[in-house]
Amino acid sequence: MASRRKILSAGLGAAAAVMGGRRAVAGTAGTEGALGAPLLSPPYGQPSPYEASVVRKLWHPTSIPQIGVSLTPLQDLHGIITPSGLHYERHHAGVPSIDPDRHELLIHGMVHRPLMFTMDDLLRLPSVSKIHFLECSGNSQLWKAAPATATVQDTHGMLSCSEWTGVRLADLLDQAGIAPGAHWVLAEGADGAAMTRSIPLAKALDDALVAYAQNGEMLRPEQGFPLRLLLPGFEGNTNIKWLRRLKIGAAPWMTREETSKYTDIMPNTGGRARQFAFIMEVKSVVTTPSGGQTLRGHGFREIRGLAWSGRGAIKRVEVSVDGGATWRDAALQGPVLPICLTRFRLPWHWEGAPATILSRATDDHGNVQPTHDALVAERGPAAYYHYNAIHAWSLAETGVVTNAA
Amino acid sequence: MASRRKILSAGLGAAAAVMGGRRAVAGTAGTEGALGAPLLSPPYGQPSPYEASVVRKLWHPTSIPQIGVSLTPLQDLHGIITPSGLHYERHHAGVPSIDPDRHELLIHGMVHRPLMFTMDDLLRLPSVSKIHFLECSGNSQLWKAAPATATVQDTHGMLSCSEWTGVRLADLLDQAGIAPGAHWVLAEGADGAAMTRSIPLAKALDDALVAYAQNGEMLRPEQGFPLRLLLPGFEGNTNIKWLRRLKIGAAPWMTREETSKYTDIMPNTGGRARQFAFIMEVKSVVTTPSGGQTLRGHGFREIRGLAWSGRGAIKRVEVSVDGGATWRDAALQGPVLPICLTRFRLPWHWEGAPATILSRATDDHGNVQPTHDALVAERGPAAYYHYNAIHAWSLAETGVVTNAA
Fold it and tell me: Are B79 and A165 a contacting pair, CB within 8 Å?
């Protein structure tokens, strides 16, 4: 308690001491005795107008408005749940409008009994809820230097976390009956691009969900309403949205998304690519302070960030404020769940000296987040996906924070 | 696995078997090859238009639109997180609009050092995130029989659950320095009614939070933006929204909300009231099937519901489909967190016979949800708040579910 008191005392340079009752009534002027807004305007609640700047940010690689990415504003978020209205998106052909009463899921191919499920069928079956992160394999394009102006929304915003509810895919496949020799599952979406990926049968039988709900309510349209695949820890694009078909087979289908896209060209191989590198590796980032923020005033402040691993639970997060010369262990907010964002926090006093702020995560399988140099050395100059290196923010004497990666 | 297979096999009366590939393409017609909606329309995402009926329901005890209750549609929700746009509300004077840059929190009274905090001050301090339910003490007005048409939104909808982030009140009070003889805290809101409650100092020093965020983003206006008190397990009205003042004192202040309201007149006492009965006791309710729903078709379906206790974690939930003659243990979805909604589930085959469906929760302190008769016998004919008895739904041969409480 003594050390906690010490931490806080220093922080209270920020809070004003009040001379015994001189300002007896605090709070905002003008609300006393005045009626506020009526109930249920609007019936489905919205954020405060004062939070209007907390929105997703758009990135269009082409001129087609249905193709692109929207990024989650991690710098403004707290805890681990991402509000569904701020979940990142990656679309290949825009958001289809699907009537759930007309939507069906077909399971066919190397099965004893092909099956077709309506949404009503699926909603009757045994359900499970899990809190898991989703991350795009293209998140953090930091293989090459990014602008100093980049925010954590720019560098890490293809990352979100929700409570998902659905049916275990293993239960559906058990009913269809897997034929001998089957090793892969083709998952197909009902968007205009018919987004299609091959998934190892072992993953489908392990922890895969056919999910219909997100953060308590039915999926948002942008997240696959009324049905999506959820493959905990696998790169986002494999978690097929608007899921309409699962075909069981002996070998992967070599779709466009696993040949021309979402593969990793590896160094010293004559241009050969690593394929089916599904798992999002251990990673972390400091969200406060982060790029674009300005620290106002010296003294106590808390360093906060997020850590995650597609292989399991976060075991440890270390934070450095001197560019990696020394490290301190951050506290992890419980419950620390597997394949889930974990919020970490470290008390800190900033007295105005320049600082370089890093975080380094370790998961419960012993995987440690690599340095940028180590990752680039391993993956080579043509790397594009699966960047998970330690990230650096630079804090100037002025309090201005910039990207240093 | 054998029993799981048996459960599901029966359920697949619902799913259509498909003759080997005759219907090779499933899903919704009309999306193939068509571009969907562009990204970021709107920038802050909204539910599917097909979910337009999943909204809060209004109850106004007077003609004043700023006074009333909005109820969470529990029958349509999954998992444990309540979407912030569907969180229940209880307002005494409407929703004030508060500029966070002008909002301050005063701590004064029996303290060594009165303090005033801006929102910036609070956001710098050590933070904590917890998933907790909130329930209005007036939830479930079932002391007397409710209409057969009542839904679970009507009977239990003043109940929601969020991930809350804020500062430990104990940390703030430690800085102010509690004077000898102090035992209570007065908490005051900045709404037009200046909603005010007396809180035991022991609670304030235990697990109370001064919360600024909910489900990842800043509080919704209806939930106290920019600052509220969060008292895990205490009746909703004590979790003062738009929190602007905390006064430390020796005795409770006997505000309107703890004399004329929010007290329990007890039987055989000559009209004396139980006061400061803060804790929401162990409780549960089946949400599927529930009042207003119609079961379509016989065979497998899952019985689902929610259990919670203001005293700790849920230890056990039993379900009966024969009006309490026999009970079976439901599965609890993990992680089972203290003072948090817990989702329970039980596989069930319904073959068309009438059924009376009940659930009974037990918490980790050994408290068991009482029967209606036992609760009424204990609390008497003038009871109004703190109803937590076992709830019954009646299922007819037609599949129609009605309230039986």
Answer: yes
Name the residue facing A217 among B40, B51, B296 (closest C-beta): B51
Q: How do the domains of chain A map onto residue ranges? A: 100-262, 283-403
- Which residues of chain B neighbour A9 with C-beta distances below 8 Å? 175
Strands of B5-109, DSSP E: 16-17, 57-59, 68-71, 89-91, 104-109
Q: Could you tell me if B70 and B57 are in contact, meaning their C-beta atoms sit under 8 angstroms apart? A: yes
We find that the CATH architecture of domain B100-141+159-274 is Alpha-Beta Complex (3.90)
User: How many C-beta atoms surround the C-beta of residue B356 within 10 A?
Assistant: 15
Of the candidates B389, B380, B382, B366, the residue with the CA atom closest to the CA atom of residue B315: B366
At position A65, the amino acid (one-letter code) is P
pLDDT in tens, A316-326: 999 999 999 99
Contacts of B81 in chain A (CB under 8 A): 81, 163, 215-216
CA atoms within 13 A on the CB side of B253: 19
Query: What confidence tens digit (pLDDT) does each residue in A377-401 have?
Result: 999 988 999 999 999 999 999 999 9
Half-sphere exposure of residue A358: CA atoms within 13 angstroms, side-chain side: 22
Q: What are A105-148's pLDDT values in tens digits? A: 999 999 999 999 999 999 999 999 999 999 999 999 999 999 99
Place of tokens 């909005």: B70
Residue with tokens 């106004």, as numbered in its chain: B60
DSSP-assigned letter for residue A119: H
Strands B159-168 and B128-135 turn out to be antiparallel
Burial A240-273 (b: 16+ CB within 10 A, else e): bbbbbbbbbbeebbebebbeeebbbbbeeeeeee
CA-nearest residue of chain B to A289? B124
Partner-chain residue, chosen from B14, B21, B80, that has the shortest CB–CB distance to A108: B21
* Neighboring chain B residues of A136 at a CB cutoff of 8 Å: none
- Nearest residue on chain B to A216, alpha-carbon basis: B78
Instruction: List the CATH code of the domain at A100-262.
Output: 3.90.420.10
Using DSSP, state whether A208 is helix, strand or coil.
Answer: coil
pLDDT score recorded for residue A1: 36
Domain range B283-403, its CATH number among 2.60.40.730, 3.40.640.10, 2.60.40.650, 2.102.10.10 = 2.60.40.650
| Neighboring chain A residues of B105 at a CB cutoff of 8 Å | 26-27
Structure tokens at A136: 């795009």
Which tens digit of pLDDT belongs to each residue from B271-309? 888 888 999 999 999 999 999 999 999 999 999 999 999
How many residue pairs bridge chain A and chain B with CB atoms within 8 Å of each other? Answer: 429
Check if the beta carbon of residue A278 is closer than 8 Å to that of residue A295.
no
The shortest C-alpha distance from B273 to chain A (Å) reads: 29
Strand B243-249 versus strand B228-230 pairing type: unpaired
Q: Does A336 touch chain B (CB under 8 A)?
A: no
HSE toward the beta carbon, residue A269, CA cutoff 13 A: 14
Q: What's the pTM? A: 0.94
Query: Contact, B18 vs A116, CB < 8 A?
Result: yes
The tokens describing A27, both together, are 């709070």
